[in-house]
Amino acid sequence: MIRAFALLVAAATLLTGAGHAQAEGFDIRDIMGGGPSFGAGGSSPIRRQTVSFSGNYAPGTIYIDTAERRLYLVLPNGQALRYGIGVGRDGFRWSGTHRISAKKEWPSWTPPSQMLRRRPDLPRHMAGGVDNPLGARAMYLGSTLYRIHGSNEPETIGQAVSSGCFRMTNDDVADLYSRVSVGTPVVVKN
């Protein structure tokens, strides 16, 4: 409702002859959740927080619980930083242990051949940026096709909608990205 109202006001402003400088600075994606004001944006429907953590993992380990739809960055003293995530939909969830093999800011995206067979309408390649489905940051998991990555769709956090990757808001993925390095262990429990 708020988005519809904002869209209506913006359209009325443009149609009633707003100043040229105002019209040039308007981007519909600012209202709809993207665009130049997007930055690392999008608040998560699941708040990031420090919690007690009883798992037997070394500090710095990423632990992902797909059933809970949460990612934990293990901290010292029995604590972890907990993030909300989007996970693979039915038939696309997996488990295992890998390491972060690469990190990229505003990564480009080339859908794998398996995804293109299911969705031939997808682009063959997409440059990094606010419209890219990998969002602001990506951390690649070993030699798999899977990543922990941002999303320009914060409403999908807490949902099972991906093809096996782990989605975070751009704010949360940028925060995690700054805290981990290549070689960080990632444990995925399904």
TrEMBL record:
Pfam families, alphabetized: YkuD
GO MF entries: glycosyltransferase activity; peptidoglycan L,D-transpeptidase activity
Record flagged with keyword Ubl conjugation: no
Pathway where it operates: Cell wall biogenesis; peptidoglycan biosynthesis
Location of the active site: H149, C165
Record keywords: Cell shape, Cell wall biogenesis/degradation, Glycosyltransferase, Hydrolase, Peptidoglycan synthesis, Signal, Transferase
Extent of the signal sequence: 1-23
Domain L,D-TPase catalytic: residue ranges: 60-189
Family statement drawn from the similarity comment of this UniProt entry: Belongs to the YkuD family.
Protein's recorded name: L,D-transpeptidase
